[in-house]
Amino acid sequence: MSVIAVMGAGKIGEALLSGLLHGGRRPGDLLFTERHPERAAELTSRYGVEAVEVDEAAKRADVLVVAVKPQDIDPVLVELAPLLGPSSLVVSLCAGLPTALYERRLADGVPVVRVMPNTPMVVGEAMSAISPGRYATAEHLALVEELLACVGKVVRVPESQQDAVTALSGSGPAYFFFLVEAMIDAGILLGLPRAVAEKLIIQSAVGASKMLADTGEHPVTLREAVTSPAGTTINAIRELENHGVRAALIAAIEAARDRSVELGKAHEDQPDKR
Ligand SMILES: NC(=O)c1ccc[n+]([C@@H]2O[C@H](COP(=O)([O-])OP(=O)(O)OC[C@H]3O[C@@H](n4cnc5c(N)ncnc54)[C@H](OP(=O)(O)O)[C@@H]3O)[C@@H](O)[C@H]2O)c1
C-alpha cells in the first residue's frame, strides 16, 4: 500500500487525511507537513498521523498531495525539486495551477495529477475532477481516483476543462450557500423565526439534493413536479425569471472561470527548474 503525504494540512488537507483514515488507510501509511507546530500536534493527537518535514515526506511517501494555497506553491516546489524523481507521484489540489507548472519546476519525468476538489470533502461528499499531466499513467490516475473516492465522487476530465470545473464545482458550494442564505432572509421577511427558517431551508436543500442524486431525474422534471397550474411555485419562478436569476448564474460561473484562467497565468512567467 502506498504511503501518502499531505503537504499543507489546512481545511482540505485535514479533510483528506480524515477521509483516507475512514476509507481504511492506516495512520502509519499517512504523513503530513504543517508550518505551525501547535496545529501539527493537534492533528497528530486527533488522527494519530505523523507530522514530518518536507524532505522526510519526499523520502518516505510514494504520493505527495499538495494542499497549500496556490500563492504558497513556490517555496514548496523549491523544496521538492531536488527530492523527487519519476517514482514519486505528485497530486496537486491547488486551484488554477497547471500540471505544466510542476513539470517545469520538478525533475524530468515526475508524474503529476491535477485535482479540483471542493469543500464538502470535510463531510465525505466532495466532487473532485482529476486530470493527468504529461508523465502520469493510467495507473497513477487510478490510484488518485481510489484515494479521492474515500472523500466523495470523482470524475476524469481533460486538463483544458479544469477552469470550467473550478468555476462549477470548485466554487459551486458557495453558490448553494448564497442561495440558502437568501432564502433564509426571505423566511425572516415573511415573519418566521430565524431558527425555523434555517431548519426549513437547510432540510429542503438536503432533500432536493438527495432527490437529484438518487432519482436520476432531470432537474426540470423535479421542478415541474412542484409547479402546479396557477399555484404558488409558478409565481415564484416567474419572479426568478423576471429578475434574471438564470442569466445571473450563467454570468457568475463564466466570471469564476475567467478568474481561474487568470490565476493560472499568474504562474506562467515563473522560472523553470533551478
Ligand atoms: N477551500 C476550497 O473551497 C477549495 C476548493 C478546491 C480546491 N481548494 C484548494 O485546496 C488547497 C488548500 O485549500 P484550503 O482551503 O485547505 O487552504 P488552507 O486551509 O489555507 O490550507 C492550506 C494549509 O497549507 C499550509 N501551508 C502553506 N504553506 C506550507 C508549506 N510550505 N508547508 C506546509 N504547510 C504549508 C497552510 O499553513 P498556514 O496556516 O501557515 O498558511 C495551511 O494550513 C488550495 O490550493 C485550494 O486552491 C480549496
TrEMBL record:
Subcellular location: Cytoplasm
Family of this protein: Belongs to the pyrroline-5-carboxylate reductase family.
Top-level lineage group: Bacteria
Lineage of the species this protein comes from: Bacteria, Bacillati, Actinomycetota, Actinomycetes, Pseudonocardiales
Assigned keywords, A-Z: Amino-acid biosynthesis, Cytoplasm, NADP, Oxidoreductase, Proline biosynthesis
Catalytic activity entry: L-proline + NAD(+) = (S)-1-pyrroline-5-carboxylate + NADH + 2 H(+); L-proline + NADP(+) = (S)-1-pyrroline-5-carboxylate + NADPH + 2 H(+)
Gene: proC
Leading EC class: oxidoreductase
Pfam families named among the record's database cross-references: F420_oxidored, P5CR_dimer
Record carries keyword Amino-acid biosynthesis: yes
InterPro entries xref list: 6-PGluconate_DH-like_C_sf, NAD(P)-bd_dom_sf, P5C_Rdtase_cat_N, P5CR-like_CS, P5CR_dimer, Pyrroline-COOH_reductase
Domain called Pyrroline-5-carboxylate reductase catalytic N-terminal: residue spans: 4-96
Domain Pyrroline-5-carboxylate reductase dimerisation: 159-263
Function comment: Catalyzes the reduction of 1-pyrroline-5-carboxylate (PCA) to L-proline.
EC numbers: 1.5.1.2
Protein name: Pyrroline-5-carboxylate reductase
This protein's pathway: Amino-acid biosynthesis; L-proline biosynthesis; L-proline from L-glutamate 5-semialdehyde: step 1/1
Annotated PROSITE patterns: P5CR (PS00521)
